[in-house]
């Protein structure tokens, strides 16, 4: 069995489940390590405590959207699949998003959206390290997605169910 599979084909909808699994798996570990103070960010801890599953949904969907956009753009730049090139393109898109999103949420007045207010505080707390953190999430999500794409549909469903099962419990760990 090969270790990684091509996830760059925009028309291959069967890749979406392993992509979701990769992102959810990474998100579960991020939550666990954040709530156990491995990642020392009071604002990130507050993000998960206050918004809980909404925070997970926001985190997972933006990574998923960037990977979808990467899959769409990949053949315009590259003719063969390379996991490294895929990750580099995803990183470029993710960093571009982070910068544009930062400009957006700093423009929105405080008090309009509670989630955006937390982003403002988080950006003040950790500054450019947010881009590094998001980049690590993108790298590991892409690696795991490519790996999970080698699994059968059945194994991906089982992986999805186990990960979804653990996320609410991880969110409510007392630390």
What does this entry look like structurally?
The chain has 175 residues and is mostly helical. The chain has one domain. Helices cover 76% and strands 0% of the residues. It is built from six helices and no strands. The longest helix has 36 residues. It is globular, with a radius of gyration of 17 Å. It starts with 15 loop residues before the first helix and ends with a helix. The model has no long low-confidence stretch (mean pLDDT 95).
Features:
175 residues; mainly alpha; 0% strand; globular
Structure described in brief:
By secondary structure, this protein is an all-alpha fold.
Which regions have little confidence, pLDDT < 50, spanning 5+ residues? none
Question: Strand count, sense and closure of the main sheet?
Answer: none
Basic shape: globular
Assembly type: single chain
* Topology order in helix (H) and strand (E) letters: HHHHHH
Portion in strands: under 5%
Task: Give the helix proportion (percent range).
Answer: over 70%
What Rg, in angstroms, do the CA atoms define? 17 Å
What is the count of DSSP helices, taking H or I runs of 4+ residues?
Answer: 6
Domain unit count: 1
